[in-house]
Each structure stands twice: as C-alpha cells, then as structure tokens.
Amino acid sequence: MRILVLGSTGYLGGHVAEHLRALPGARVLGAGRSAGAEHRVDLATVRPERLAKTLASAAPDAVVNCAGATGGDPVTLAEANARGPAVLCAALRDAAPAARLVHLGSAAEYGPGVQDTYVTETAPTSPVGPYGATKLAGTAAVTASGLDAVVLRVGNPVGHGAPAAGLPGRVAALLRDAGADPGAVLRLGDLSAHRDFVDVRDLADAVRRTVTAPGPLPPVLNIGGGAAVPVREVVHGLARHAGFRGRIEESADDRAGSVRSARVSWQCSDITAAREALGWRPAHTLDDALAALWEGGGTP
Questions:
Q1: For an engineered disulfide with 4, which of 60, 190, 220, 279 has Cβ 3.0 to 4.6 Å away?
Q2: CATH number of 2-159+198-227+269-283
Q3: Which residues of 38-47 are buried (b: 16+ CB within 10 A; e: fewer)?
Q4: What is the average per-residue pLDDT within 122-140?
Q5: Of the residues 11, 110, 118, 131, which is catalytic?
Q6: Per-residue pLDDT at 253
Q7: Alpha carbon distance 209, 279 (integer Å)
Q8: In sequence order, what E strands does 39-196 have?
Q9: For 245-255, b where at least 16 C-beta lie within 10 A, e where not — what string?
Q10: Does position 259 have pLDDT exceeding 50, yes or no?
Q11: How distant, in Å, are the alpha carbons of 32, 103, 256 from that of 26?
Q12: In this structure, are strands 247-250 and 185-188 parallel, antiparallel, or unpaired?
C-alpha cells in the first residue's frame, strides 16, 4: 500500500508517518515544504495541475493531509487551511480519484462549547476566529469533493515534539529554561478553560485505522481524549514531570496566551462515532502524553 503524507516533516505529520510505516507492506511517501521531504509540495501556493503531476508520480492508494497553519495572519491561515485542501481535492480528482483522503481538521471548527456537553459531529459549527474558520472551510472542501474522504476533527494533540506555538509546548520550553531554580516564576494567562487533549500517538493510530478501514466511512469523525480537562492541569502536570520548584502565576492580561482559544472556555468532543467506525479509542492518558512531551525534548 502506497501512502502519501502531506506535512510529513511537521509535528503531527511526523508522528503519523512514523506510525504508518509500521503497517505491513506499507510504502510511506513524505511530502511537504521541507527539503527533507521526498516530494516538495506547499499546498498554500501549489497549482492544482502541478500537484496533480506529483500525485500521479507518487501513485498513492491513500493520502493523509497533515499540512496546515495554526498561526499567522488571516491570509496565511486561509492559504494553508482553506485553499490547500481545496487544491488537494481538485488534484486528486484528476490524478488519483480512487485514493482515500484522510484530512486533519480541528475541534476549533465547532467554536465555544457548552459546559458538561460532549460535541458530536453533527453539532453546529461556529468558529470564533480565523484559525477555526479556515479549518472549517478546508473541511467543507474535503467533504464536498466527491472523493473517498474522511475529516478527522482533532482536539488538542499533546506529546513528543509539541511545538512552542501551542500551550503545552510553550510551557515545556519555559520549564526547561527555568531549570531547578526555586525562585523561578512562570507567568501565564488564564488557565481555567477546559480542553479535550489527545495523545499524538493516539491521533496517529486513528489515522492508521482510517487509512485501512473498509469504506464507506462517515465524512467527519471526532478524535480527542474524550474528557474536558482544565488547562491548569496540563501546566501543573508538566511542572511535576520537570521537577519545577518555582511558582506558577496566572494572569488574564497575559498576552502570550492562545488568541484563538481566548473566547472558548469549554471544549470536549464526543468520540463515540470514531469508536464505532474505526474500533478506535485513546490508549494513552494525558499524563502519558505529558511525560512523552517532557522526556522527548525536541521535535521527532
């Protein structure tokens, strides 16, 4: 089985590609902007006809799109998260219409949740900022493509190599800088929000199952930890793994917090459909993910 992974040199793509390589008989091909990728592809700028040639050359049985942007101005986000999936679908229809497409979406597409409510795939979508809005546009392009395509709406992935652009990676970097100094102070934003965290290894397993599952599959599947966890627990859990002896301070005025999450105090996905369609459920706890993040150091 030939599997093309777009964004294979990124955080999520790296884990996904590594997991897929363990499939018996799988030939995993990496694609992305990095010089280390087998196929140089930038979905934000590539023309559909050029991408179609790349896809024809790769001749994939499945394509996994892990490429995208989590930060930047609205134009950058739109190019990566909305234009990119649309171009990919157009190229696939021309060059590899039988290939299954697995696209990584985001729980941010749902927008603010209601406390103690688990969000299903049929819930209304109301993203609060450009990130969620552009990810939702990408999902629309995939689900309307007519291809054998599945969108995995991912919660907050945590694990080895988490980038500093997200809170877990940023806190890990701050803790490494602080070291064992008992006088160190970590000044962070409001940590009272609840999020659905998922170990990145469980996400990679969900992708593997989606690639290999017999069709047809639901067009959208939630992939999360299945629990709403206070962000504060993530910070203090990382501090425990780091042996941090200093002080953690929260401030609602901290400008280093996540802009796109500022107006979302509760978010938790119902992952029942993924269990029923894929036989998937999280195998790792949040503490497992935090341990892997702290012990793993840099990106995989």
A1: 60
A2: 3.40.50.720
A3: ebebbbbebe
A4: 96
A5: 131
A6: 58
A7: 8
A8: 39-40, 62-65, 100-106, 149-154, 156-158, 185-188, 194-195
A9: ebebebeeeee
A10: no
A11: 19, 19, 41
A12: parallel
Cβ atoms of 199 and 289 closer than 8 Å: yes
- What are the φ and ψ backbone dihedral angles of 293, each rounded to 5 degrees? -65, -45
The per-residue pLDDT for 52 is 97
Tokens 């980038």 label which residue? 163
Terminal CA-to-CA distance of the chain, rounded, Å? 24
Instruction: Return the number of other C-beta atoms located less than 10 Å from residue 35's C-beta.
Output: 7
Q: What is the pLDDT of residue 188?
A: 93
Least confident of 35-39, 152-156, 195-199, 223-227: 35-39
**214 CB-contact burial (10 Å; exposed 0-12 / middle 13-18 / buried 19+):** exposed
Cα 168–Cα 74–Cα 112 angle in degrees, nearest 5: 55
Place of tokens 């160190």: 184
Residue 260 — pLDDT band, cuts 50, 70, 90? very low
Strand pairing class (229-230; 194-195): antiparallel
- Separation between Cα atoms, residue 182 and residue 106, nearest integer Å: 38
Under the banding of pLDDT at 50, 70 and 90, the label for residue 77 is very high
